[in-house]
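Input for the complex:
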Amino acid sequence: METFELLLHGFSVALQPTNLMWALVGSVLGTAIGILPGIGPALTIALLLPVTTALAPTSAFIMFAGILYGAMYGGSTTSILLNTPGEAGSMMTALEGNKMARAGRGAAALATAAIGSFVAGTIATLALTFAAPAVAELAFYFKPTDYFAITALAFCSVAVVMGTSRTRGFVSLFLGIAIGVIGIDTMTGQPRLTFGNMQLLRGIALTVVLVSLFAVGEILYVASRYRSTPGVMAPIKGQLWMTKQDFARSWKPWLRGTAIGFPMGALPGSGSEIPTMLSYTLERKLTKHPEEFGKGAIEGVAGPEAANNAAAAGILVPLLTLGLPTSATAAVLLAAFQNYGLQPGPFLFTSNPALIWGLIASLYVGNVMLLVLNLPLVGIWVQLLRIPRPQLYAGILVFAMIGVWGLAGSWMDLTIMLVVGLAGYVMRVYDFPIAPVLIGLILGPMAETQLRTALAAGQGNPMVLVSTPLSAILLTLAVLLLALPILLKRLRANA
Amino acid sequence: MSTDGNNTTEGGSQAAAPASPRPYWIGVGLMAMGAVWLYAGFGLPQGARYAAVGPGLFVTLAGAGLLVLGAILVLQIWRGESFEAQDAEDADGATKMDKRAFLTALVAVALPIGTMGPLGMPFTATLSFMLVANAFGSRRWWLDLICGLVLACAAWFLFKQLGLQLGRFFPPLGV
Amino acid sequence: MKFSKTLAALAMTAALGTGAASAQVNVMLPANPGGGWDGTGRQAFQALNDAGIYTGGVNFTNTGGAGGTVGLAEFLGTSTGQPDALAVFGAITVGAIKLNNSPINLAEFRPVARLTAEYLVIAVAADSPYNTLADLVAGIKADPGAAALGGGSAGGVDHISLALLAQAGDIPVADLNYIPQTSGAETVTAIVNGTLVAGVSGTSEFAQFAEQGRIKLLGVTSAERRPNLPDVPTFHEAGYDVEMANWRGILAAPGAPDDNYAMWVENFTKLSQSDAWKAVLAAQGWEDYFLAGDEFGAFIAEETERQGQILKDAGLVN
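Predicted:
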């Protein structure tokens, strides 16, 4: 029952007028960037990181949480009405949602997406509320070898699952790891790959890589292959609300999507694409109206949308309790914590309960706000898409350069922006997945530190790496993930 | 990444023959990058008193990984692996590359390296804004100038207020 | 030229409203926003303003990385010979310069004032067999490799205090199995889950965890027991002649004009006696560790010598 009291205290923090205002700012910003192409939640929070010098931590995190959730709401709107997902997590929504919109059932699709997001967001936040303190205690049992095994498994799964081929997945991953080793080695203080440059000593900031790969790479790519005829927007017409039957067909997918999304979000490297894909496949299998799939089945919107929001809450569990970032957004949030000199982990729950519980409570508040912002106002939001593309992309570049320059006022960072931005362009042209670069950059240094800590504490005995049951299981899984497809191929070839 | 200088020309040949691009240079570039990392890795201590692995290990691993992956990629390209450009919102992977637009946008990204310090952020941002808008086909430069200037100044003041270090407004005038 | 500049500035200020006022003192904070150095710099200037000692504009620059050496190198480049250019630094910078082979020489800068300090404590897990510092040192001596020790970055004050403790206890410094941790909270986690046998961090970081009963504090690096930790013996009491403080201070640019430098030394001397600063110290839990001007310069030289020697003994630098 202690949790309940802490949560109540959290609400007293989240409901203060200033914090409510920041939650609103975050929700509005989040919805907007979810709708606009080219910018996602990770990028937006990265660009806003420097405001941490001016804002109190609680307010800043409440705003960031609003952006995180809001982007999930906003992304579905464009998927449904325009068939262009603003977020990777909304790709599945476009499949059925846009068909529904074209059949004149756009309002119902938007409603099931928004209500599904709300239901999933609220249930997942509840799960976060009660799971987090328990998971936090795990930090005292997890050893460096366990963390190393988690990162190793994340590497293998990301490289194998994402992208068109495993080679290209691993190329992206290793690029990230290679960038991650630049700078001072935290364990010994030795400079690595700095080529005598002082500015490279502090390493290449995640923000710079994120902004360059996503915003700059995207601008260069879209500029070179610009399709000036914009997508056709399906009008919102027909019946304006979900029918009884729509509800009856939606509530189970909402719950199943939540059940898939929340735990998947908590796993490193799964992002929001995999849970939404799983949810879509599951709904397609379970539906009583298989003939409607591909032509606008409401289950295909309800499930993935719920999964996508639940995953957003899921990433907060390992982040807040273990300090373990499982996605780019989580990594940027971790950087925000570190800007305040805070280390997410079990101690944050005791040393700074107002922040943690205020943040969790604000997720409930934000969900309600977003439902209100999105359901009746959807017509206003889509007006954002009328911003002419030339000025929109130009504006994105302006914010990208502010984010990079504002970090340290260093021309070196701007040079890195150009080089990594070009790399992002090349990766788009030749179809290399982008996300593994970030996973390598985020988890690479962590894997290295944990590996070396585990080995040092075990006096160099490599057996220490499988000394706990968890590490043994996870490393076995990682090896299986790599070897299984090859083995299967061999077996098939022999048969 | 170390071969980024090549990519515009290669991107051009890709546009000329979009059916089956053979981007050997990517594989070779990855191998070159791997070699740099490997070299740096070997220059660092591989061991440590108790940890058995030192600061050089991950650098060496990253280098070796890139080298091997680059070689595999070259092999795959030789065997005819297909590389299709990704589709994005507002972009069509199948269309031909617009070199002029690409280069204009590239200049907009490269510009800040030289001008951000001496000419300040609002000026640089305005110029980059105009260039990108131009790359996307906007031909009303005066409108872009006004849009860019308003956006850049508003952003400068807002973020300055929020505590960002964006430098002076227009350094040549000392303000 | 000067006139036209002033005119332009006036015109711009008038045209653009507030916000563009040119700053009068430039302060380098060689750390990312939010950390101890950032706080020290910003709070000190806030207090200077509150006490009416210095009420002009302040322009802060955050350039983090490598124990402050990245920021100080930039400061050296942009501010040499300039008046009204100050930088925050601290005990960690001294070791970091040696460790990173940085070209910076602290003796080139003009020492303004040492402001605050935090003492360090050494802790073991609550269920550890070691109950005193002597037990712990004996345990490390028996098998240094098996006794993993942790704290902040390699060559930082935590590491150096452990190295000094080892020397005082006749353990070869190079034999210590020191594993750097990213934060005090990480160090506690590692102590509790058994990765580390003992860890070192600032008193304020460890005290709360000792209260929760997660860890036991075996010793503090101050000369006298701390008022807020009356039960924790000093290293001296336990028989080890070790004193170490994580201090923070202010430097002026190399070659700063004499009168301007003297003004800043005086400003900070006034600050150290002001109520505004005392309120900041109390609110932040910082120790007053004031020392100004040339005496501070002598102290920096001493620290450079002491830390350099111990890093050499630890095999971290040649």
